[in-house]
């Protein structure tokens, strides 16, 4: 397939020519018609696959020239770095198109941004918090948004932006196209799609179902959390073989819980990363693991993405990932650079179904190992495993338990104000003593008399 097969227009063809791109990447080829059709779309693709163009090409193709001031396309991304990157990509494609693109993010002067917004724009790229601040200040009008793109939505949810997204959905026009891109499918992403998307079309670049040949794969069938911990202890005792071990768990709370258990057994040998840890903590953990200071790293799926650490001897799936693609991503962390890698997966009875999905994707069976006799089979159950909790595998339940806590910092005074509604009018009234309503001509007189 070439770009000629996509129904682009001359300005876009010229921009792509200038960039020297010849063929669309798989996600671009797959997304173009779906995004162009105006339907809701969920794309599963990682950074580096050309996903930004995958949604921007069809959007730019259909965006008519307009002189209206309010933006028509809104792209939400989790970090300021991504705002910059996405704006750059859009500008590359817009070389021969007359459109106005603006990137906004927090931590910068909002007044400068307000002035730029007031000059009019077509495409706005933003982090959720700053977008919301601009919208409530009324400088930014969202009533003309036709297309909402949420990029890296898995990271966004993992950083605790769900509420911010809800608030933004509330002030967007009902009639709009939702386009979402995520590198991994998680329970949170799934829930968001179910709640807010209308019958979306899913496009994903087929994750290669063929695992690398140099990764051996084995599995244990195991009844519960504590038995998993006992088995893990048994394996990790062999420090020479298990010299650099990446352990995956499904959610943050489980990561912390497992970390505590391992600290009791192998004090000072583990570290943990998930999104409730500070950036510094995460960086330090990764450094310590990379340098060999700690031989065990516990991580959640989203956090381990993009981790490029050499010589990982074993990837242990402490739980069986619900989405088979995630299993492929996880085990790909070992066996890099032609080195021999080992992947082990623990599955309870409840995890049989996802296990089968993984085997189906790979078109192969993972060999089953017997739990060594020396491993104690525990009867103790953790909260989620106890029978009275009927909903223990309810993804919504799990999400709640794992919900991010309150913000790390005290709110600034100005943010503590409660919303009394109509702030714009109140401000104008205070400043100019203008009538509260157009019809209320006696308002000023009345107030003077007071
Ligand atoms: P992304 O996945 O959107 O972060 O894009 C990764 C990089 O690939 C960016 O630097 C793009 O400019 C580049 N890129 C996007 N589409 C293509 C293509 N069809 N051919 C070659 N490079 C591309």
Give, in spatial order, the strands making up the sheet with the most strands: 3-4-2-5-6-1-7
**What is Rg?**
26 Å
Strand tally is 14
Helix content: 40-55%
Ranges where pLDDT stays below 50 over 5 or more residues in a row are none
Describe this structure in words.
With 450 residues, this protein is an alpha/beta fold. The protein has 2 domains: 3-204, P-loop containing nucleotide triphosphate hydrolases (Rossmann fold, 3-Layer(aba) Sandwich); 215-385, P-loop containing nucleotide triphosphate hydrolases (Rossmann fold). It is built from 19 helices and 14 strands. The strands form 2 sheets. The chain has a 7-stranded parallel sheet with strand order 3-4-2-5-6-1-7, sandwiched between helices. The relative contact order is 0.10. The protein binds adenosine monophosphate (AMP). The site of adenosine monophosphate (AMP) has 12 residues, from helix 3. Belongs to the DEAD box helicase family. Residues 388-413 have a biased composition (Basic and acidic residues).
């Amino acid at each position: 397939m070439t770009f000629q097969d996509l129904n682009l227009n001359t300005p876009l063809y010229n921009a792509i020519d200038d960039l020297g791109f010849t063929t669309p990447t798989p996600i671009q080829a797959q997304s173009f018609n779906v995004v162009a059709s105006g339907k809701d779309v969920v794309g599963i693709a990682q950074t580096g696959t050309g996903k930004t163009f995958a949604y921007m090409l069809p959007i730019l193709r259909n965006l008519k020239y307009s002189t209206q001031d309010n933006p028509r396309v809104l792209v939400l991304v989790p970090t300021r770095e991504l705002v910059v990157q996405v704006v750059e990509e859009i500008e590359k494609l817009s070389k021969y198109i007359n459109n106005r693109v603006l990137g906004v993010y927090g931590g910068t002067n909002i007044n400068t941004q307000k002035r730029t917004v007031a000059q009019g724009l077509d495409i706005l790229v933003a982090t959720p918090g700053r977008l919301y601040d601009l919208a409530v200040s009324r400088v930014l009008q969202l009533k003309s948004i036709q297309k909402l793109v949420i990029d890296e939505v898995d990271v966004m949810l993992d950083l605790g932006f769900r509420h911010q997204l809800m608030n933004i959905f509330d002030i967007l026009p009902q009639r709009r196209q939702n386009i979402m891109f995520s590198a991994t499918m998680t329970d949170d992403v799934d829930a968001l799609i179910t709640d807010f998307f209308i019958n979306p079309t899913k496009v994903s670049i087929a994750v290669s179902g063929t695992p690398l040949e140099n990764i051996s794969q084995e599995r244990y069938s195991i009844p519960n959390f504590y038995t998993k911990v006992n088995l893990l202890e048994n394996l990790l005792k062999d420090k020479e073989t298990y010299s650099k071990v990446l352990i995956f768990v499904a959610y943050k709370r489980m990561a912390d819980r497992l970390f505590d258990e391992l600290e009791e057994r192998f004090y000072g040998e583990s570290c943990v990363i998930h999104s409730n840890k500070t950036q510094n903590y995460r960086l330090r953990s990764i450094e310590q693991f990379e340098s060999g200071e700690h031989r065990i790293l516990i991580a959640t799926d989203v956090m381990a993405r993009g981790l490029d650490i050499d010589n990982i001897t074993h990837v242990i799936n402490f739980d069986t990932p619900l989405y088979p693609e995630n299993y492929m991503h996880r085990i790909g962390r070992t066996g890099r650079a032609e080195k021999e890698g080992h992947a082990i997966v623990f599955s309870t009875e409840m995890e049989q179904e996802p296990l089968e999905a993984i085997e189906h994707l790979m078109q192969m069976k993972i060999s089953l190992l017997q739990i060594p006799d020396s491993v104690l089979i525990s009867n103790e159950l953790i909260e989620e495993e106890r029978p009275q909790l009927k909903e223990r595998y309810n993804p919504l339940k799990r999400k709640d338990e794992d919900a991010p806590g309150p913000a790390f910092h005290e709110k600034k005074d100005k943010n503590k104000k409660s919303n009394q509604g109509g702030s714009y009018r109140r401000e104008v009234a205070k400043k100019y003593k203008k009538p509260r309503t157009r019809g209320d001509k006696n308002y000023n007189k009345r107030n003077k008399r007071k």
